[in-house]
Amino acid sequence: MRVLRAEEVGKVLLKGGPARVDADVSAKFEVGDEVVTRNINPTGHTRLPRYARGRHGVIDRHHGVFIFPDAHAAGKGKCPQNLYSVKFSARELWGAQGSGTDSIYIDLWDDYLEPL
Amino acid sequence: MSDHHHTARLPDTVLRVKALESLLVEKGLVDPAALDALIETYEEKVGPRNGARVVARAWVDPEYKQRLLEKASAAIAEFGFTGRQGEDMVVLENTPRVHNMVVCTLCSCYPWPVLGLPPVWYKSAPYRSRAVIDPRGVLGEFGVTLGEDVEIRVWDSTAEVRYLVLPLRPEGSEGMGEEALADLVTRNSMIGTGLALSPDDPAGADKP
Amino acid sequence: MNGGHDLGGMHGLGRIDVEENEPVFHDAWERRCFAITLACGFLGEWNLDMSRYARERMHPATYLDTSYYEHWLIGLQTLLVEKGLLDEAEIEQRMQALAAEADA
To answer: Which residues pair with A61 in a beta bridge?
Structure first.
């Protein structure tokens, strides 16, 4: 165990703890692909919110390869995989009464997504 | 102030924090001077003025703005605003047709190096629940009304990418220097729950 | 997990309560809670994802009825105890001792 010392605080905070991983992991998707989020309900940690499960979206951005939280929180290591910003229309998430103009963008990993 | 524990909802919170800290220090697991340094960093050194300077630079320097939109982390790092909870930045540009708003529905993820620690409302249930389902209503509570043809984009920070909104440059700010422009950039405008101040706004000095 | 933290789209949680010019920390205990959480994270006994999961596991009613830094406090104690760095008995004992000191 490593104890944080006062004189290193500045340097440690400025360096941070990047979640991006320099690993060559092939991406399942590209920008523009239509996807559907999985309907998963793990009792462990996940970053796929309930309001966005089983929903159709479009890959808007490809962020790169990052630590996968579901595995990382369970002590399974970083399990790096590709992360995307996925665009969902308000109506897709909230139904016909949702806004016809607005969109919600959610950062999601390969393991949360299926091709449409 | 010290007896007014209005933020503690459980009766033993204050005692529990003291107990944990004293045990951790006794066991040599935390260094008290390091605790003070951590507090000082976020209470005094890092705050929304950082982000305001980035925005002001983008407003006056088109090449910087381009770098900011293409590779935000590197562009923000030009100011030295790096590190914890800001390692991977994306800047979202507001336009007359598009308004961006950032939330973390699952916890409180927020770009610390450019905005400091988040305000209580950002971390609380009302904003986190409503931002994704009723962004227009949320903006209304913040006193912002957008045209019906303006597209609202809500970004849920579910991963370690951190988002900073580049607000629209206010009318009447042409010819202003960077420092003065930074004064117009409120914290809320960089989260997306507000707009940058007008140079004529008399309340400008007090806005968060 | 489908915990109390997964709030997107929930109704009934009230108006957004904005405090103008709010301080970074509202109380001394928040400051200390913030600092010990970060410092303990640095020990390397857990990662950020584990620390989020530790907070998510509290009863949803507790989650909604406690303040932000109380979420941190509950999560931190959960992790410290699970990793064997502290045990609940010594925490309770220390709390009692501190309370007695304050009353003396």
So the answer is: A85
